From TrEMBL:
One GO cellular component, as annotated: synaptic vesicle membrane
Phylogenetic classification of the source organism: Eukaryota, Metazoa, Chordata, Craniata, Vertebrata
Stored Pfam families: MARVEL (PF01284)
Protein name (record): MARVEL domain-containing protein
UniProt keyword annotation of Ribonucleoprotein present: no
Location(s), subcellular: Membrane
Length: 229
């Protein structure tokens, strides 16, 4: 009853096919966010009319307030320890860690579908557990992606043109500062899009998992004993 029976049939059905898509998209989610490294730069003009470029590297998990800007060669007495603004590690790590757990769950679910579908459908508890997990995961995709999307907006502000407005010597007029460039955040934008696509996939998959549960297909009543009236 519980022996392995490998069968690719379930991946030809919506239940298994969507699970494969969820597995693939979870990889895109944590790879596009967790693998990002960026760079921003601004230019300062010293009193000697010598321009100097300050390059700032940042990466996942985006603890920007721990990144110190190196002191320019200009003789500026007001330039103390200067850091970027914001710590967005909680939202970024939540998003990436959750995507990794989803990736692992999809592998476990596919093993169950492809090798033990006979057990999955004969034991009513497995579809119900799968359904509950699917609903919870769909909700957590909404929460984690929304939080990460808000954090990404704040990261863009902290590393974008507003950066020079937060540097004390630039703000007080001791230096003329000009924002220069920032590395593209295209992969981070993709991570947000993929996060919401995962939400759609898991929300849609909830219906197909629900159809496997006893809530949708109640067990047939037991036949009456022979001779019973």
């Amino acid at each position: 009853m519980s022996a392995l029976r490998f069968d690719l049939g379930p991946v030809k059905e919506p239940l298994g096919f969507i699970k494969v898509l969820e597995w693939i998209f979870s990889i895109f989610a944590f790879a596009t966010c967790g693998g990002y490294s960026g760079k921003t730069a601004f230019e300062i003009m010293c009193s000697t009319n010598v321009n100097e470029t300050i390059d700032i590297d940042f990466a996942y998990p985006f603890r920007l307030n721990s990144i110190e800007l190196h002191r320019p060669k200009c003789n500026i007495s007001t330039w103390g320890k200067t850091f970027l603004l914001g710590d967005f590690s909680s939202s970024a790590q939540f998003f990436v860690t959750f995507a990794v757990f989803v990736f692992l769950y999809c592998i476990a679910a596919l093993v169950l579908y492809l090798g033990y579908m006979h057990l999955y459908r004969s034991a009513g508890k497995f579809p119900m557990i799968d359904f509950i997990i699917t609903v919870v995961v769909a909700f957590l995709w909404l929460v984690s992606t929304s939080a990460w999307a808000k954090a990404l907006t704040d990261i863009k502000e902290s590393t974008g043109p507003k950066l020079v407005q937060e540097i004390l010597p630039c703000k007080e007029g001791h230096l003329k500062c000009y924002f220069k460039e920032i590395r593209s955040m295209g992969s981070l934008n993709v991570s947000v899009v993929v996060g919401f696509l995962n939400l759609i996939l898991w929300a849609g998959n909830a219906w197909f998992v629900y159809k496997e549960t006893s809530l949708h297909n109640p067990p047939a009543p037991a036949p009456n004993p022979a001779g019973a009236s």
